[in-house]
Amino acid sequence: MRKQRPSITLNILVLVGALMMVFPFLWAFVTSISPGAGLSATPQLIPENPSLSAYAELLQRLPFAQIVLNSLILAILTTVFQLVTSSLAAYVFSRMPFKGRNAVFAVYLATMMIPMQVLVVPLFVEMKSLGLIDTYLGVLLPGIASAFGVFLLRQAMNSVPQDLDQAATLDGAGHFRIFGLIVLPLVRPALATLTVFAFLNSWNSFLWPLIILRTPAMKTLPVALAGLQGQYTTQWDIVMAGSVVSVLPMLALYIFTQKYIIQGVAGTGLK
Question: What are the pLDDT digits (tens) for 30-51?
């Protein structure tokens, strides 16, 4: 009995924590199906007259399919570019020694401490000189590389035994074969984690798309949802309907990558 008490207490704590995490999403969904709902101090989790009218109104007010497609394409491209650039850079920092490698890596990591707000003006001037204002390429370029992604994948690659590299080198494999056939399969959990973070950051990005994009049809989802808030009154059921829709791709991505993270953990290690 004594051994079961800590387990029961831990399960209760986990359950309470899970409920606290789920409640905001549940509250957003309930508000979205409650016509005329506001940010009430006394939430009602069971609406009296549930309706999907907020979702219909959302589709009428905005070219919602195009806006979601804009965010989806930008998030997918950003994720793919970050996976490619971060994995290649991480392999160099992990497997290819050169003079000053640690110093260069430290300087590269130091860029993580620079907030985006500081970079907005020079990035905007650069994009204007390149003629990329109000273009998707202008939104995409600042996010094709990630210092966090390089750090995450480098740490994962450092845990892969270099004996595998030496064995592959004896078999005539070069760096690209070692990188693609040996190292990458063994860091799949880190790749899946970076995929989630990169997609999430791009999907929720607000400041840079707001500054660089001018055409209404080119807006991303966070910018379009911010435009739903009125100056004096806000229809929170419509805003929450958009928020619920914005959560669905991230939920699907998490469910998809969770399987690969488990497979990656099971496939790592030496026999």
Answer: 887 877 666 554 556 777 777 7
Residues 6+ apart with CB under 8 A from 15: none
| Contact yes or no for 211/227 (Cβ under 8 A) | no
pLDDT tens digits, residue range 127-170? Answer: 999 999 999 999 999 989 899 999 989 988 988 888 888 888 88
Smallest CA-to-CA distance from 73 within 28, 120, 168, 140 is with 140
Separation of first and last alpha carbons in the chain: 38
| pLDDT tens profile 80-99 | 999 999 999 999 998 888 88
Domains for the chain: give ranges and CATH numbers. Answer: 1-51 (no CATH), 52-267 (1.10.3720.10)
Of 143, 175, 12, 134, nearest to 76 by C-alpha is 143
d(CA 145, CA 154): 14
The pair of structure tokens assigned to 232 is 């004096």
Report the C-alpha gap between 265 and 159 in whole angstroms.
12
Q: CB atoms < 10 A from the CB of 243, how many?
A: 20
Q: At what angle do helices 101-110 and 147-158 cross, to 10 degrees?
A: 140
Alpha-carbon span 238 to 93, nearest angstrom: 48
